[in-house]
Amino acid sequence: MVLDTTYSSKENKDSIKKLVGQAFGFYDIIKLKGIGSKRMVIDDVSPNLKQYTNSVSDINYGNIELRPNGILIHITKGLQNFTWAIPYYQLVIYKTNGSSIHAQGKFVHFKNNNMLKENKLFFSKLLNEKIRFDEQYNFQTQ
Q1: pTM
Q2: Which pLDDT score, from 0 to 100, does residue 78 have?
C-alpha cells in the first residue's frame, strides 16, 4: 500500500500501524542501533510506482524504515513524500547490480553506488529482522 504522507493524517498512521506495526520505542531503537537507512538513489521502479517518482530527469531518493512487522519505504517526489508499507511476509530482496525490493507486484531498485554501500549494515539488520519475524511461523515436524 502506497500512501501520500506529505502531510500527517490519522488515517495514514492507523493504516501503517495495522499493516507493519507501531514504530519502535526509544529503547528498541538504541538496542537495534538505529531503525532507518541513509538516503539512497532510486534507479528504477515498477510501472505501477512510476507515478510516485519524478518524471523529469531529476534524481529520485528513497530510504527505508524498520517496523516490528515490516518496513516502510519513503520516496521523495519534489516536495511530496510517499510511503510504501510492506509487511515482512510479502518482502523479497534481490542483490543484483544494486539492491531491489519486491512486494505486492511492485518493486524499487536502488542504484549501486556509495550511498548503497553505506547502507550495507542496515540491509543486514533488515534481513535479520525478517528472519526473526519468519521464525515465529517456522513449524517443524519431527
Answers
A1: 0.90
A2: 85
